[in-house]
Amino acid sequence: MDKLKCPHCExxxxxxxxxxxxxxxxxxxxxxxxxxxxxxxxxxxxxxxxILSLYxxxxxxxxxxxxxxxxxxxxxxxxxxxxxxxxxx
Length: 89
Known about the structure:
The protein is an alpha+beta fold. It has helices at about 15-20, 50-60, 65-85; strands at about 5, 10-15, 30, 35-40, 85-89. It has one domain (about 5-89).
């Protein structure tokens, strides 16, 4: 996978795995410029499909619960990976 750009120095230094560890509270330091990097607070909204899959899977259709959880996680990962950008912390 391609590395993600640091919003401070514009160098490609962050992996997708590192981005998944980020939240508005947890930050990473760029190894090149030592700038703090985070994701915006709106990144929390990317988890809505996962939360809906938990609800729908446990209440509405418990026999397909496992499949719905996996689908929710895949949708969350897609949204988070493609639409949540790194920002300066």
